[in-house]
Design goal:
With 521 residues, this protein is of the alpha+beta class. The chain contains 11 helices and 20 strands. The chain has helices spanning 2-25, 41-47, 51-56, 131-145, 165-186, 203-211, 218-229, 234-243, 254-261, 324-327, 515-519, and strands at residues 69-73, 79-83, 95-116, 150-159, 194-201, 247-248, 252-253, 268-289, 312-323, 330-331, 335-336, 341-347, 354-361, 364-367, 372-386, 395-410, 418-435, 442-461, 471-472, 486-510. Helix 6 runs antiparallel to helix 7 (218-229).
């Protein structure tokens, strides 16, 4: 029985050593192993055959009684923390129990994405090649990881090497500016860790593609690489690419094949994203349970459990707005008479295109002594579609609107001729929304509208002399008067303005901590 117990104890100790060595090898990550029992650190450290293995864990045998946990700072700032729970000091045992430790792992990962540009263009076209797919992939990564876990974002922009060298340098600079502007507009939270730079002509990228080509013959591949690597001036290199490569039995004219196959791929901006990835897993461990004697530890040390804190991100839900063009309205007799107005915009989804806008104008100015009236109540509802997807709803948009108004307008100081009525209107609109600050909370909007307006109204005047009353302009039997007997119809421009808006209500969304699922797709 004693021999059998020693064999079982030795096997358990060996398993524990293998488990500890595996942890020591994986030193680039952080582990928090949460234990459910006590610890006997001196027994474990003494079991290492390699003394350097114990030193790697920072073992100090002067405090073996109380050192239940140890940690080691590793290169790059990561920390390895382990808490042991097996106690193998007993002479005999007759049971091995399975226990589980919760292991939190954080690793530093790099994700690389590419947006492509059309020939000789520096505008970012989301309908070109895979740009729209890449944008959705970028959104999934940021949504799942959380922007706070992004440590660095580098954007490198290049142009394909055909044509004039100086023009290609200029083109890569413009593409770099485009990417910087695009990222700042759509992901302003990343501006502090983002860097953009132009990198001229993409010879190295072309070389990488050619070296992996499987269609051309090997001799043709080597011929292209020799030209790319040749130490000659840039003009000579380009001439050789276009005129000296010859033909290949599989692809025909080599330069035309390269231009058709690889050149569209090397007109690009590449995004290199460094980010943290957190994972949580259960690790199975065998623990030897002693039957005799049971040695209770002298004290129990509380081991803090480092939780994975949930992270959130926010995006606008509701904005308040005012039309600045209406706010500065002026008439010669009334003077400063702003068309008081307030608007709201409700954003339906986080990264979607759609929103709805409600607009209410309510100027109510009058000066009876001068027959001056500017009184109006106007309500309008609008549906908007933003051409560019993004959580901040900026850039170009199209709209469909409809509304209803009441009015009393008179600017005739002599006779008091005015108009009183109601109208309905509807049509289409176009606008552009420009962010004013880094967080995109303040925005400036420019818009124009066109459509159809129809009003039923009555003309009125003050009469001469004026007795303080106004009369509908009706020259027939008063009993036959039907209010709103005049009609006005209009098809054409119906509105324009400059609107200032501020986001007042936000949605909050919990970031998904399962980063590994996104990165491995």
């Amino acid at each position: 029985m004693i021999r059998l117990n020693r064999i079982i104890g030795t096997a358990a100790l060996t398993l524990l050593n293998v488990w500890s060595v595996a942890w020591a090898i994986d030193g680039s990550v952080r582990h928090d192993a949460v234990s459910s029992t006590g610890a006997a650190y001196s027994e474990i450290a003494a079991s290492y055959n390699d003394a350097a293995m114990a030193a790697a864990f920072g073992y100090d045998d002067t405090d073996a009684e109380t050192q239940l946990a140890w940690e080691k700072d590793l290169p790059g700032g990561s920390t390895f923390i382990a808490i042991e729970s097996a106690d193998l000091s007993a002479e005999s045992s007759d049971e091995i129990r399975i226990e589980y430790d919760t292991v939190h792992t954080r690793t530093l990962n790099t994700v690389y994405l590419e947006f492509n540009f059309r020939f000789d263009r520096y505008e970012l076209d989301m309908n070109y090649m895979d740009n729209n797919t890449i944008l959705r992939q970028l959104d999934r990564i940021l949504d799942s990881i959380g922007i706070e876990n992004i440590t660095k974002l580098e954007i490198l922009s290049q142009s394909s090497p055909e044509g004039v060298y100086e023009h290609n340098i200029w083109l890569s600079e413009r593409r770099s500016e485009t990417m910087g502007r695009f990222m700042n507009e759509n992901y302003p939270e990343l501006s502090g860790i983002m860097s953009t730079s132009p990198d001229g002509e993409s010879w190295q990228m072309l070389r990488d593609y050619v070296s992996k080509d499987t269609r051309m013959e090997k001799v043709s591949v080597n011929k292209v690489i020799d030209v790319i690597d040749s130490d000659v001036n840039i003009g000579t290199k380009k001439w050789r690419m276009e005129n000296a490569l010859g033909s290949d039995a599989n692809v025909g004219n080599i330069y035309k094949y390269l231009y058709r196959t690889y050149y569209p791929r090397i007109r690009f901006s590449g995004l290199t994203i460094d980010l943290y990835k957190d994972t949580v897993e259960l690790v199975e461990r065998q623990v030897v349970v002693k039957t005799e004697p049971v040695v209770e530890p002298d004290h129990t040390e509380e081991v803090p459990v480092i939780p994975v804190q949930p992270t959130h991100r926010r995006f606008p839900k509701l904005a308040l707005k005012t039309n600045l063009a209406y706010d500065v309205f002026f008439t010669p007799d009334l003077g400063y008479a702003p068309i008081l107005n307030v608007e709201y915009e409700y954003y339906f989804t986080e990264n979607g295109h759609w929103s709805t806008v409600g607009e209410y104008e309510f100027p109510w100015w009058s000066d009876e002594s001068k027959h001056q009236y500017l009184q109006m109540l106007n309500w309008q509802q609008e549906m908007r579609y933003y051409l560019k997807s993004g959580r901040w709803h900026t850039g170009h948009y199209l709209s469909l609107y409809g509304g209803y108004n009441l009015y009393d307008i008179c600017f005739d100081s002599n006779l008091g001729n005015g108009y009183q009525g109601e109208g309905v209107h509807g049509g289409l609109g176009y606008g552009y929304v420009l962010p004013l600050n880094r967080k995109h909370t303040w925005k400036l909007e420019f818009f124009v509208k066109a459509g159809y307006y129809e009003s039923h109204y009555d003309k009125y005047d003050a009469g001469v002399p004026f007795h303080g009353k106004y009369y509908y302009r009706w020259y027939q039997n008063p009993n036959d008067l039907v209010p709103r007997n005049w009609r006005f119809r209009w098809f054409g421009p119906t509105g324009a303005g400059i609107t200032l808006s501020y986001d007042i209500i936000y949605r909050r969304k919990l970031n998904d901590t399962k980063a590994v699922d996104v990165l491995n797709k």
